[in-house]
């Protein structure tokens, strides 16, 4: 659209009036800069103020595209509306390109007389003047161009108008720079998030679940099958067999891999906290609920929730969980609104759930609901042929963590294979970590293994009959003796010992700390 001098019909103003008008406009521009949020809104807002309040029309901001080095129109005011065209100028091309390249203000008395004027936007009245100024931060090269057309012909005040536009450009420059910096930071954060996501996914790729025994190959096959579907999966197996690793592998190999994998250890929290942790709570639902909070189920929307140690939850909570599994529905604690979520549930337990159902400790309906697709991760003692690969894999993992090369000798591996590993892969991992610390050279040999105290724990075949077991209910036992006896009976697996004593894992951890019991690490 072209505006003719008659169309704008201006009255001639004095120099003082023009300067006062410019000051007022600058004030309004500064308000736009401090209020608007996005760069696009700011550009449009500033051009709108120029158009409405000053004697400059058809403002246009072009910004440098750092990728191509070209000027790209960021916003333009046509007189009736703002528009953004995909018009570009190469450095030096036309009037705009010349301002960007030279970095100097350009004032033209009558735009039609300017040979470099390309009129790509079709905005300007040919008989009126034109002012274009570079947008630059400090002494650096310009990052863009601000151009506009005074509404009156040559009245001897073109210089004043150019100074005014330069001031607007200076104000804009800071904002554009900040917006670019923010965008760069946001991009860097997004890249980092994607990289970490890829890394996490890579870490749980099935390649990282080591094992080639018949038992483990069956597990891998089951993981691949169930990963494709939405079915609830129950991962079972002794402590340290890799249940959590398998749950991760299912998620990261499933169509939900881009969603969240949210984990909750059900044994770590008492009932009331477990409920608000899983389902969230409304503001004021209980003392301390100062604001509304989303629960893990809501956080896992579109992804997977992993309920570890599911065998530990109370009867009351079992009923609540059954409803989510059946209907996908729940209410936040203290809330009345029913929420629906699309979440895949993977649960894990090392408890013999069937026996608990038999005894009436675990709801039968919940058991069937969870057990749709059970995966049994075999104990390490039943697949000792996996130990060499596992040992080498774990030694590599330790080497990365310790930042030095590590290796393990064949004789050390043979010794590892003869052991029973009641704490399974986790115990093997801890034993190797201790051995690595013992090894100054970085080679884990028989000596390093023996230094970990492994020879004290006899292999299955040579294990003597257990000594007369301490009666945990013996009233003569003091608390410390009772906890130690339970830990010994549980092979020093704290969760198991806690169960023997009817405690939660947290409670036993607290007792161990306060009674100063030195825990034998596996
Ligand atoms: N097949 C495997 N390949 C590689 N690493 C494994 C394997 N199985 C287990 N691990 C490692 O052993 C450790 C214990 O595994 P994980 O935590 O998954 O066991 P878990 O069955 O969940 O134990 P718990 O019942 O005590 O919670 C982890 O560091 C895991 O990475
Ligand atoms: Mg676990």
Would you kindly provide a written description of the structure presented here, covering whatever features stand out?
The protein is α/β, with parallel strands linked by helices and 522 residues long. The chain is 44% helix and 15% strand. The chain is built from 19 helices and 18 strands. The strands form five sheets. Strands 1, 2, 3, 4, 5, 6 and 7 form a seven-stranded antiparallel sheet that branches. Strands 9-12-15-8-16 form a five-stranded parallel sheet. It has a two-stranded antiparallel sheet with strand order 10-11. Helix 6 (214-227) packs parallel to helix 7 (243-252), helix 17 (479-489) crosses helix 18 and helix 18 crosses helix 19. The longest helix has 46 residues, at 158-203. The N and C termini lie far apart (80 Å). 34% of the residues are buried. The model is unreliable at 1-9 and 460-467 (pLDDT under 50). The structure holds adenosine-5'-triphosphate and magnesium ion. Magnesium ion (MG) binds at residues 243-244, 308.
